[in-house]
Automatic annotation (TrEMBL):
Signal peptide, first to last residue: 1-24
Region of interest called Disordered, as start-end residue ranges on this chain: 146-166
Organism encoding this protein: Solirubrobacter ginsenosidimutans
Listed name of the protein: Plastocyanin-like domain-containing protein
UniProtKB keywords: Signal
């Protein structure tokens, strides 16, 4: 009984020792363009005996979540492997592309000048061992250079309106004895205020008075006064003058006729 058990164990050990090793995925390659590099997604692989006698082991990676690598039509894509290869075959979509050696373990593939990107870029690496033939396939997406977002137009600087400056306006005219008083007001709309000047009052063609007026802020008013000569005062009373024509001349501007003012 003991002898039979030992023989059985020896047979099992021999079977285990003689079993083929599990299929191992090839080391990851690198794919690069002038924009950068990426590690492609594993697509599939096979392992077959050189003699042709025996099963072919197949492994699927399904090419899940392939990265996107920027490239241009007419540009060169470089595949760099970790080990030697017997051959490298490349595809852009369904089109087979020429592959040229580009250094140790490196291969160059030119993207067709008329290629429309993005497209799937896949390549198959064929290699051989002492007893086996191996293939490994990888995939990624070749995408166009991302469009440059248009630079936002600069926000125009807020324009502060220039302050409006207008002439002061006489609002009332009073005569008390020989004293003539006129109230001058700067309109609120004149945000820059009203510059000073002189108010000329006429009766017909005769000048009755010229009164100096100082600068006024917007919305402000002031009373300017002057004395009339006795002779002029008598003439105004004799002719019962009730209105005077006013003209305001600002310091830096042309005269502005302000109309007739009632003399009270």
């Amino acid at each position: 009984m003991l002898r039979a058990t030992v023989v059985f164990i020896a047979l099992v050990a021999a079977l285990i020792g003689g079993a083929p090793a599990a299929f191992a995925q090839a080391p990851e390659p690198s794919v690069s363009t002038t924009y950068g590099s990426a590690t492609p997604a594993y697509l599939s692989g096979t392992e077959s005996p050189r003699s042709g006698a025996g099963p072919t082991v197949i492994k699927d990676g399904f090419g899940l979540n392939p990265p996107t690598l920027m490239a241009d039509p007419g540009s060169v894509v470089t595949i760099t492997l970790a080990d030697d290869a017997d051959a490298v075959v490349a595809f852009l979509g369904a089109e087979t592309l020429p592959v040229a050696p580009a250094g140790e373990h490196a291969y160059a593939v030119t993207v067709p000048a008329g290629a429309v990107l993005p497209q799937s870029f896949a390549f198959r690496v064929e290699s051989s061992g002492e007893r086996t033939l191996l293939t490994d396939s990888w995939v990624l997406q070749l995408g166009p250079e991302p469009a440059q977002a248009a630079a936002p137009e600069p926000t125009p600087a807020a324009v502060t309106p220039a302050p409006v400056q207008g002439p002061a306006v006489p609002t009332s005219l009073r005569l008390r004895g020989a004293r003539l008083a006129v109230v001058m007001r700067c309109p609120v709309a004149s945000t820059g205020g009203c510059e000073g000047g002189s108010l000329t009052l006429k009766w017909g063609s005769r000048r009755v008075a010229r009164i100096a007026v100082g600068r006024l802020p917007a919305g402000a008013s002031t009373t300017a006064r002057t004395h009339l000569a006795a002779r002029l005062l008598r003439q105004l009373r004799r002719h019962r003058v009730r209105t005077l024509r006013g003209t305001f001349t600002p310091v830096s501007g042309a005269p502005v006729v302000v109309g007739r003012l009632a003399l009270r």
